[in-house]
Amino acid sequence: MRLNYPNLNEKSVVFDGGGYEGQWASDIYSKYNCNVLVFEPVKKFAENIRRRFTKNKKIKVYELALSNITKTATISNEDDASSLHNMGKEKIQLKSIPEFMGENKIKKIHLLKLNVEGEEYNILNNVISTGFIRKVEQIQVQFHKNIKNYREEYLKIKEKLDRTHKLNWRFPFVWENWKKYD
Length: 182
Prior knowledge:
Blueprint: E1 13-17, H1 23-32, E2 35-39, H2 43-52, E3 59-62, E4 65-67, E5 71-75, E6 90-96, H3 97-103, E7 111-114, H4 120-129, E8 138-141, H5 150-161, E9 165-171, E10 175-180
Parallel strand pairs: 1-2, 1-7, 2-3, 4-6, 7-8
Antiparallel strand pairs: 5-6, 8-10, 9-10
């Protein structure tokens, strides 16, 4: 299900928020030959992904974290659970999706995948409040329980997403997919 996006093709733009080792980016690229922008703020993971795809011009790696604001922050370094929401020690750069899209002249995100250890709440609230949610065709997101009032925050986001996107499938606090209404 996480790779089943028949509308993706070689011209599609896919954001991979939380690239970790780059496996999902590799899988989605292999299936659709799409343009994949991987966002991985932890230096050692970003460098490994960059090396992995050094000869692939369609997979670009950005050593930064998607967020609701552009600034520097610290992140915990806990392999696949590295998070802005735990005590951090590595300094990283945060970037909002609207700002990144503007700087890079990106008009549409065909698929936004978020596995960002709690920062998905800030990211989605930002793209919803700025109206950029209308530029996102599909969202694949893993909501996490590591923030205060996560259930209430999830329900608020779900209510807002219901206005622009349809919930296709959901495994609570594992993965879910939203598709923009036609």
